[in-house]
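FORM 7B: Structural annotation worksheet

SECTION A. Query
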Amino acid sequence: MKKKKEQTSFLQRAIEGLSQEGFDEAVSIFQKYYLKNEIVNVNGTNDGGCDIKIYQNTREIKKCVQVTVRKDWENKLKKELENANNLITKYNYSDKYDFFCSSVISESKIEECKQYALNDYSIDLTIYEAHRLSQLPCVELKNHLYTLHDDIILKPNQLNLGKATKSLYDFLTVGKGSTDIKNDILNSFIVSILYEKGLMSITSLKTELESRLQKNIPDIIHVINLLKTAHRVESDSSNKEMIKLSESEYENAKNIFAYASLMEDEFNKGFQEIILKYNLSNGSEVLEKLKLLYQSYYKNDIDEEFNTSHHKTDDDIYKSFNTYLSSVIQDTNLKDSFVCEIKKLCENNTYLNRISASESFLSLYKSDRLEQYIGQKQKNLFVDTPVLVYLLCAIFQVDDSVDWRDSLYRSVKSLNNLKNQNSEILHFNVMFDYVGEVAGELKKAFQIAQLENAPCFSNLGNTKNTFYNYYRQLKDNELSDFYDQINNFEDFLDNLGIEETDLCNDNLLIGRLCQIIEDIEVNIAYCPLLDDFNSAKIAYEKQLYGKQKSDAAITHDVRQILFLLNTEDYENNVFITWDMSLSKLRDNLKDNNNQYKYFPIYNPAKLSNKIALELFNIDSSAITNDIYIYADKSFGLSSKVKSLLDIISPIFGNKEAKDSKMVKALGTIRKQQLDSIEYNEMESNKSNLPIESVFIKILDIIAVKEQEKQNSDVMKKFIAFMIDPKNEKYILEEIKKWSDAISKKANYNHDVFFENISKVEIKK
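SECTION B. Predicted structure
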């Protein structure tokens, strides 16, 4: 199944990239050769609701057909169903309706649309979308799509070592799961050579392999026989000494090379657009530096297995690239904006990750270090709060073809799949303190969800809360098997195994979460407070100076690192986190005998790729852009902007306050401020809107006041003050004044505002 999916990936991607004119032509070919219809295209603004006239034996068949490349295809479909109904009732058109769409549509959404057409219009709807069109056996359509990409499709005598290496990762992901990765790397190059050369003798093939790999290969007869058994290679019928690819393997190789080349082409086009946007004259040099960044990152990943004391750190690797960019783009805001756009490009296109991983695999193969690298050692995998949140989301069973495309989620889900497949040697653990943090994230998600039906909700901005974002994906995109039951966040909680009443009691909620976590086979560790905790915490606070992290989070992280360093089998511990500041904390700590200890710290994507290679169970969907995830966490590329929704949800996200006029008014103010700022200016500045800055300053002042008084009354009074309806007019006036002052970079006296807050009486 996996192999077939890979074979159709190029065709699907090619269909998705067609223009309206190109898709019209593709549909015409499909109609003629697969549906056996003669057609005339009449697509246009006055087509009356039918893009194609169908003829059979010169006789017109009155059947409605629509062809679209629009991304908002669902709105288009519903509108055209009305037109089709008109043609059916007035002009005796057939009640069968064909809808061709170049987007990928999930099976659940197709069924929903078919029911809608049947229930509302008594129309029998058939949808041909990109995924289905790529799978149906229409040879003429397939050949046409290849013809459109002649410039990037690899034909015989065009292959070389570079092209074969670029596709190595893709070949390994569709392998048979053999534990002999050396043979599978060899297999990939054998297939590459036979695809290029055609019929060859085994002797000639061996010579070519050694030339390309620059390595002596004792014997390939065994590998050839395995390929024959798998029906990937076959002997020539007229000369048994000669071998060639089987027909199915030739098609498979053609698709892999085509898909890899299409990804490269799309990446280069996207990269060039960014270079032009920022008016950079040395785009080719920037691209080379970017490739070096990826190559260094993957090379470092492998090298640290053999030299943990001298390998480059992630910090060193990214800083060298960051330093180079600073010499090219002097404006810091523009540079950050440029990096964010490159990051987005790399998230949507895994070209650089794949070729870098391939080169690393090949480097291992050539260096005879593969046996050292591959070792099925037992690993104790410890996760932090953000990883555990994604892990809990991953327990929802989702159709892989329409799974959540969030790169962090995919990397954690891949890691979880690897753990489930290798449960004897991989064990998930989480520190109990982190369970409390997860409970806090779940409560925040509930508070956000209380605001989602407010008419101004879309004006409040986005949220970084993973639980809520995953819930919205399930609800909005039909990604869950439980979709019929998930109409609100309470339904999501119920499917997770938590009742709304659990959220009211911290101990009850944490206890329930502990049960759920243990049910998904994650062990809960209880870390004692060690003697050197205080000194380690002070050192970490100095290291973090200027970066936002709560005292509780600092405490938990320090306890976790000390615990992992002080277990007897610390060398088998692996900490999984996106917070790379913890690597520095680990590196600065020594045991009671003043000896340095080491355990690896990885983000989920990096660890997933390493384990996949060690166990040779490579998952192509796990490739994620972890390089820029590191940059995000270390340099704050995306954390500079905070959403009003995240800031105010703890204040107004309860059933008593969710319908507050204040929420609507704040959303209106934010929308007005957003509308007054040019998009490019907002992107380049990466700063908060004035209204969001007001709330950030308020919360900062409250934090200082609470620290001075060592109690939480200030925050409690602030929340009570904000949700009291009689204060709405005064608060809005003050926020507008403060917001205007921030816009004008002027000072604002907030003393009276906080004096009024201090007068609030809290019920004990």
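SECTION C. Observations
The mean pLDDT is 83. The two ends are 62 Å apart (CA to CA).

SECTION D. Sign-off
Analyst initials: ____
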